[in-house]
Write a structure and sequence with these properties.
483 residues, five-stranded mixed sheet, 60s Ribosomal Protein L30, Chain: A, 3 domains, alpha/beta, binds iron/sulfur cluster, five-stranded mixed barrel, globular, 32% helix, fumarase
């Protein structure tokens, strides 16, 4: 039956997108929360259990303070399904979406993460727009909008492969498990996987992102389904978890907490497969827009499970106590206090250029610790916004130079390369890791914060911060021993 024509104003789309962005940044969906909670309950490795506790506690803080779960408030990816009987009234549809993104990120003090020119200047747009927008025309007179907030720790782990046409389920499963083995550690595990199969190379990639909007099913739920795709999802889930990478890569029972596959017809000579990683901060929201009403498909909040603190009484070390830091051993869990600096990709680039040009650095790095972080700007009454670690390996090419100039250590997440390990050994430094995606919890450990260099870099400016009881684990100690 043909539907009647409805008129939807683009100014309403702007407000709706703004609301979706806000909600998705503050809350994961109940199914995601439930899987992470179940992982926490059954985790048998203490390190991983502790990380899962931090992740759940961080979600509670984000919900209470109405601040984003993670400082990487990410790329906004919008899936817009527009009924063919909708008449859009107002500005350009994509402009309306981008304006909604800008409003959400500005009003709520979310971090702007998008650069205009990806190759040369890489200047921040300072709006977090543009979004990546996928539009599809569907029957009916409503608009369905879904969006995913995607941080790049996990986005950078994504892969697209063109398998041989008859590679079949077994090779697809092997490829997915291999991708987890290679990349999960740098993607804030436990992760979930969106897998797109079929279509063309780009369409498989599109499907892999769209799959992240599907409900997450537990191992037990998947085991109850006997369709072939669910069987594949189950096998990928089981085999990935047999890798025992665990939360934050510390070793544990849950590395992957969800697998969703979407497929599409393909060419007789092709089998495209794309694997999209999402970190534990798997953030998305949906809405259906009618002419006279808006149906948000999310709960205003979620139900939290009981979690008891298993935080040990960590030994506290002041960052000025260089001997104590040099005597730490890999795997030691401590808390740090004192003054540190932040710097991430763009600031490192500038620092290295300054060194090459023989100019004086804007900060004295001798015996200092750099935290790889780009916090959200502070909201009212905040010292700093959510401030979790970013992936450290992107700084690997810069670190040996800085360590040779006296840098004592760094705090980040994920693995480092051999050159960094050797440099830490040579200079008797240290590399600490802290849990990615627990940005609200970590920002509560920051007692002072001021921008001291490169303010033009926005979120990537160098901050001087005073931390107190900041939880870290020694990932590479002063002997170069790595865990
Ligand atoms: S949880 Fe980790 S991977 Fe996810 S957005 Fe935050 S920093 Fe990035």
């Amino acid at each position: 039956m043909k539907s009647t024509i409805s008129t939807i104003k683009t100014e309403d789309i702007t407000e709706i997108i703004s609301k979706l962005c806000k909600h998705a940044n503050l809350y994961v969906s109940q199914d995601v929360y439930n899987q992470l909670y179940a992982a926490y309950l059954k985790e048998s490795y203490m390190e991983s259990k502790n990380v899962l506790w931090q992740i759940l506690e961080n979600m509670k803080i984000a919900s209470r303070t109405k601040r984003p779960i993670c400082q990487d408030t990410g790329f906004v990816v919008v899936f817009a399904e527009i009924g063919q009987d909708v008449r859009l009234q107002g500005c350009d549809f994509e402009d309306a979406i981008n304006l909604g993104v800008e409003k959400a990120y500005t009003r709520n003090k979310f971090r702007y993460s998008i650069v205009q020119d990806p190759i040369f200047e890489r200047t921040n747009t300072n709006t977090n727009a543009p979004a990546v927008i996928h539009t599809k025309i569907i029957p009916g007179n409503t608009i369905r909008l879904s969006l995913v907030i995607k941080g790049c720790g996990s986005e950078n782990a994504g892969v697209t492969m063109m398998l041989k046409p008859f590679a079949g389920a077994a090779e697809i499963i092997n490829s997915a498990v291999e991708a987890v083995r290679n990349s999960a550690r740098n993607s804030c595990p436990p992760v979930r996987l969106g897998i797109g199969i079929g279509g063309t190379m780009d369409y498989a990639s599109f499907l892999s992102k769209k799959a992240l909007l599907e409900p997450v099913r537990s191992e037990e739920e998947l085991a109850l389904s006997d369709d072939k795709v669910s069987r594949m999802e189950l096998e990928i889930l089981r085999r990935s978890n047999e890798l025992k990478i665990g939360a934050s890569g510390f070793g544990g029972d849950t590395t992957v907490f969800g697998v969703n596959i979407l497929s599409y017809p393909t060419h007789i000579a092709a089998l495209p497969v794309a694997i999209n990683f999402s970190c534990h901060a798997s953030r998305y929201a949906y809405v259906e827009v009618f002419e006279d009403q808006v149906k948000y498909k999310f709960q205003p909040d979620y139900e939290f499970g009981e979690i008891s603190s298993i935080q040990e009484n960590l030994k506290n070390i002041n960052v000025e106590d260089i001997n104590a830091i040099k005597n730490l051993k890999k795997g030691d869990r401590i808390s740090l206090s004192g003054y540190i600096y932040t710097a991430r990709d763009a600031a490192h680039q500038k620092i290295i250029e300054t060194i090459k040009n023989g100019q004086e650095l804007p900060i004295n790095i001798k015996n200092k610790i750099i935290y790889y972080a780009g916090p959200c700007p502070p909201a009212e009454n905040e010292i700093i916004g959510p401030a979790g670690p970013t992936t450290a390996f992107r700084m690997d090419k810069f670190t040996p130079t800085l360590m040779d100039m006296g840098l004592l250590g760094s705090i980040g997440k994920g693995k480092r390369n051999n050159e960094v390990t050797e440099s830490i050994k040579k200079n008797e430094g240290v590399y600490f890791v802290t849990t990615g995606g627990i940005a609200c919890l970590l920002s509560s450990k920051i007692k002072e914060a001021e921008v001291v260099a490169y303010p033009e870099l926005g979120a990537e400016a160098i901050y001087r911060m005073k931390i107190e009881d900041f939880p870290v684990t020694v990932a590479i100690d002063s002997t170069g021993d790595s865990f």
